[in-house]
Specification:
Layout (H helix, E strand, L loop, with lengths): L18 H35 L43 H11 L7 E8 L5 E5 L11 H13 L6 E6 L5 E5 L22 H15 L3 E8 L14 H5 L29 H17 L4 E3 L4 E2 L2 H6 L4 E6 L3 H11 L2 H14 L6 H14 L23 H13 L38 E7 L2 E9 L5 E9 L6 H15 L5
Parallel strand pairs: 4-5, 5-6, 5-7
Antiparallel strand pairs: 1-2, 1-11, 3-4, 3-8, 9-10, 10-11
Length: 504
């Protein structure tokens, strides 16, 4: 059978291709593969390089339009004018007493039993704008602290500081921690930017060790405490046992940690019953820690120096720390209504005027300073200087007059107490008040000292009224139903009404 040739172009048509041509083609192909790889490599390197270099030759795109920002979110082009209360003008209209009386008489009503007295004055002129039993004696509760503040600032001076010292004892290696009236001591280091804890026992201990090292002292130290600055009973018999047990006050000594509290942040509950020894024990612990590297040890326990030792010790002052100023302490006392601090400031005022640093000395010193201010004192009856005792008897007029002396009197030392008045709805003992609709118009405007006992509500302070007139006031409720919320609201509403007053 005759074999048929495949059509031209068929894959099987090999007879027409020269063997030498095929050989040369294979050689060309083999040589082309390395060249192709090289080209691929160059391309791979060229692409990233182009991404880096090319943008430099391309002009930037125009910026995208900024998102629309509300005007109130944009930075200011200029500073705004300073905001705040305008200066008080002597020409501001004085409220009419009849208009003030019409407002306050409808507000000062007890919630149940009891009654209110009240007194309002124009601070500049002294004109009486409201007087409901203003000269009647009443229990003022913590409004007593306004009298104590004025007396401390006048007798001690707002820049005065109390010193806590370590003195060399009467025997070798004996050190005496000596109280000088600072009851706001910090158990650790001094905190110069604070009032509570401005002076620290840790700092005092470190300075004591440095002084002992300089003297070449080694061995075991004995710590004594000298609290002889105060005299008389440490606990006022006029204070109710229940108030002492509740931690409203504690036995008084001329040195204490945290205003005689275990923790400055916990202002209720049990307190140290011997704050001098508590402070001395804390000092001994700090002294032990500081003295370890200096070859000093500290004997266990602390003792009290005897009157003889207290009189002779002190030929050498080893170390000393100083409290915050009296002005700063007065402000803290008013803001927080600190009974312990108030009583100590009263005793220190007594010592500064040559009286015994006792309760009797404190009450006498405060009354004497008020008399020098021109406040009528013969009718006053003082059982303490913090207001915790129910035996205190003063009038709303006398309280308003001391506020007037602080705000607008001639004794500039009293101005230091202005920052201590709590601000309605914002600070101190008024921080949670003036939040309701009936009193909110006084928020941020009323500045006043509060006072609360079981059947007593008091509020004394100052306010600038709607016409720019500075008014001073005092409202005192006695014989009130215990716990009745309407009584506190009554004095708050009255003060708020003065703030909004355009009473003409």
């Amino acid at each position: 059978m005759k074999e048929t040739s495949p059509p031209a172009g068929s894959k099987t048509a090999r007879k027409d291709v020269s063997p030498s041509l095929l050989a040369r083609a294979g050689t060309i192909v083999r040589r082309a593969w390395p060249l192709a790889g090289l080209l691929a490599l160059l391309l791979a390197l060229a692409v990233p390089a182009a991404l880096v270099v090319v943008p430099g030759f391309i002009p930037p795109l125009p910026p995208a339009a900024a998102p629309s920002v509300p005007v109130w979110q944009q930075p200011p082009a200029t500073l705004s004018a300073r905001q705040g209360l305008t200066p008080l003008l002597d020409s501001a209209p004085v409220p009419l007493p009849s208009a003030v009386t019409a407002q306050l008489d409808t507000l000062l009503k007890p919630d149940g039993d009891g009654s209110f007295t009240g007194f309002v004055q124009d601070a500049l002129t002294g004109n009486v704008l409201y007087d409901r039993g203003g000269s009647e004696n009443r229990v003022p509760a913590s409004n007593m602290k306004l009298f104590t503040a004025a007396a401390a600032l006048r007798s001690l001076g707002p820049d005065h500081r109390f010193s806590t010292r370590v003195l060399a004892g009467t025997t070798a290696n004996q050190v005496v921690l000596t109280g000088g009236g600072d009851v706001l001591l910090n158990p650790g280091g001094s905190a110069p930017d604070r009032v509570m804890g401005h002076a620290g026992l840790g700092t005092l201990a470190a300075a004591t060790v440095a002084a002992l090292q300089a003297q070449g002292t080694t061995g075991e130290l004995t710590v004594l405490v000298d609290d002889s600055l105060f005299s008389g009973p440490a606990l006022n018999p006029a204070w109710a046992d229940g108030d002492v047990a509740a931690g409203e006050v504690a036995p008084l000594y001329p040195l204490a940690l945290n205003s005689a509290r275990y923790n400055p942040a916990v202002t209720t509950g049990p307190r140290p019953q011997d704050s001098a020894v508590t402070a001395a024990e804390a000092f001994a612990g700090q002294l032990k820690a500081a003295g370890a590297a200096a070859g000093l040890t500290v004997a266990a326990g602390v003792g009290r120096s005897t009157p003889a030792e207290a009189g002779t010790a002190g030929s050498a002052v080893l170390a000393e720390v100083q409290s915050a100023t009296v002005g700063e302490q007065v402000d803290l006392m008013l803001q927080t209504s600190d009974n312990y601090l108030a009583e100590v400031l009263g005793r220190m005022a007594a010592a500064a005027t040559g009286r015994p640093a006792s309760n009797d000395g404190a009450t006498a010193a405060v009354q004497a300073q008020l008399a020098e201010l021109g406040i009528d004192t013969p009718t006053m009856r003082f059982a303490d200087v913090s207001g915790l005792a129910i035996g205190n008897q003063v009038s709303a007029r006398q309280l308003a007059e001391v506020v007037r002396a602080i705000t607008d009197g001639t004794d500039q030392r009293l101005r230091e107490a202005l920052d201590g008045f709590p601000v309605a709805g914002l600070t101190g003992t008024l921080d949670a008040r003036y939040e309701g609709a009936a009193t909110s118009r006084g928020a941020g405007l009323v500045r006043a000292k509060t006072g609360t006992l079981n059947t007593v509500i008091a509020l004394s302070g100052y306010v600038v009224d709607a016409d720019g007139r500075l008014l001073v006031f005092s409202f005192i409720g006695n014989g009130l139903a215990p716990g009745a919320a309407g009584n506190r609201d009554a004095v708050d509403r009255a003060a708020a009404a003065l703030a909004a007053c355009g009473c003409r």
